[in-house]
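Notes, p. 3: input format for complexes.
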Amino acid sequence: MNTDAADALVIGSGIAGLSFALELADHARVVVVTKKDRAESATNYAQGGIAAAIGPEDSIEAHIHDTLEAGAGLCREDVVRTVVREGPAKIERLMEWGAEFTREQERLALGREGGHSRPRIVHREDRTGHEVERALLDALKRHPQVELWENAHAVDLISDRHVNPNTRPRNQRCFGAYVYDIENRIVETLPARITLLASGGMGQVWKNTTNPSIATGDGVAMAWRAGTRLANLEFMQFHPTALYERDRKGRAFLITEAIRGAGGILVNDLGERFMERLHERKELAPRDVVARAIDMQRKMHGVEHVWLDCTHLDPDKLRKQFPTIYRTLRDEHGINLMREPIPVVPAAHYQCGGVISDMHARSTLARLLVAGEVACTGLHGANRLASNSLLEAVVFASRAAGEAKRVLAESNGETLPEIPVWNDFGTYDHEEFVLIRHDLAEIQGLMEDYVGIIRSDLRLQRAARRLAIITQEVENYWRRTTVRSEILELRNMAQVARQIVKCARQRRESRGLHTTTDYPDLDPALGAKDTVI
Ligand code: FAD
Ligand code: SIN
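Output follows (533 residues plus flavin-adenine dinucleotide):
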């Protein structure tokens, strides 16, 4: 790693980090660090697509309306208006960078997903994220001012308190990050004049998740340790249709909502189409409604999953629109989606809360910007509208790049303070991996059972008690142990799980993705407020 000060340090190589780097590349020296392979990100697995009001029967107002409706009274309307308005131009930008989306004749083909009142999803078959990630990485190769380091795991953000512990909290600024070089097993200091946190989500905190293994909440944990404000972590979105497997290893395979948009229906063990009774949009109701309905079916019928049935749909169209899902189900799971229904369950999918960001992607720590799933911009409120996250990431990455240009111009010529090297005095290599595995399984299991789709005071109280013990044990272990990715991630997951439960206990009402049996209704006295930590 070249550890000379960068103008901008980017943590994460998904859509948010890469598009920010591309926007800034002509103006500054940008370093992108990513903890695994460069393409390994949630972005790379996104299936359905990117929402944008570009169809002939669509309008900006309709997209705004659907986003606000899904968000259950908690969206920031100014943010919704901005993101939706800026969306179509960002689709153009992605295409200029080389992304190729599916077309029907000359026009972009538009898919349909839950909560959307009309077809609106720009996509590349059922592997939109893979195409976006490919295009962004290819475009980045053409920029000599951007360096991308793989296997570079950010440990902690550097701020004034590392330089001068007496700095008052409100005067803190961010000066880059300590980054663990996995191959050489050392923690490097990466100074930067501005830092973008684009480290994605935290689905791995739950046992059943569609998220890849990188989604361990590192960004939220680092930001929290640096003293920035977080909000709305109780709103984990459970995707209604992940493939059910009895002995699954690793992440759950997603069955895109676009399949329901193409006519797929949900049925229970008795063959009943249960969504018909529950919502006028049936299977295309907002995600929180569908996930709760499936959960209810499982409990009522004492079964592990429901079925997604596509057997009545045109086989040629299905194969053409959903080639990845068709092949994966056939080759890896022995399921022919044209002839038999697919067993599906909800799984932790998207974190609506995160590090609080303003309209310019600024966190509450000066010179720390945030974009993508790690950020809480106010777009999603209490429940994200499907396919609004890639859109939000690319809009806010662009706004962050604008802010970075402004800060870099303002601070031109300024020298960074002397930053102390990483202090690992008194630590050694324990190799106690059995402890890590055990603690991890305990966190994921209790989040699944106590902080799932339906919650209660008792469950949250139990989760809080157990997490207090686990975080303390992990912290003691961390203090004695040489840095390794496994312990870093475990520590981050324990800390974010605790913050999630803290947020969930603060929300004494049922709203959007947070449903609790003790407070089954909306609480008007709460006045649709964010839970802020
Ligand atoms: P990511 O793409 O997750 O990238 C995060 C990056 O940060 C990764 O490179 C990771 O390695 C790196 N990183 C993390 N921690 C560290 C660290 N400590 N140090 C260094 N690097 C780190 N949304 C839609 O809008 N439409 C869809 O169709 C859609 N489909 C989805 C399908 C699946 C299976 C999943 C899981 C999500 C889907 N989503 C979809 C959500 C969407 O993909 C994500 O919200 C979005 O891609 C997040 O982008 P990001 O850049 O914020 O993070
Ligand atoms: C999907 O394809 O169903 C996922 C879309 C999303 O998470 O926005």
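The radius of gyration is 22 Å.
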